[in-house]
Amino acid sequence: MTLRVLVVDDHAVVRRGVVAYLDALEDVEVAGEAGDGRAALEHLARAEVLGSLPDVVLMDLQMPVLDGVTATEEVVRRFPAVKVVILTSFGETERVHAALEHGASGYLLKDAGPAEVEAALRAAVRDEVFLDAAVTRRLTQELRTPRAGLGALTAREKEVLVLVAEGRSNKDIAAHLLISERTARTHVSHLLAKVGLTSRTQAALLAVKEGLVEPR
Question: For residues 84 and 46, what is the distance between their CA atoms, to the nearest angstrom?
Fold first, then answer.
């Protein structure tokens, strides 16, 4: 499947570097570029009218006019079919957590290689989790453990949490546990609600923090 990607970053040099990476990948198409969150939302609104929304938005966090966290929230609210993957640096963990709370599907370091970029994009559209090991370690150090904690989860929900953290989609979870995809989706929704999280990536970070899985 060809992935269509909108690249959002206020630094033209960074944008051009990311676009060059994407252009070198098979079955990945750059759907456009934007220099701030508001421009990204305007691009998506036009694309929606034309029936050509991208599959993923690669979103910078620190931008003028409209920052990446607020823009992520708006993308998820207004264009739910579009996934958001955050472009981050080591110093932005607080903003990354905020973006994940607002529905971002994952994150990438700005100096990630082409293979990592492609893996994160494809994981997002398959509703899977891609965790960059270096960023994950930094994020989990600052992750606030939900008040309910893992004790609120059933044994099956903990099992599902581990599978989510391993990057598996609902379809993969269903096949592994010999249950229906609908049941797998219900387990994921329930465990997120119980621990007060909003995204699979947050859940995966919690699993790493609690020692259930190792960051890849």
Answer: 18
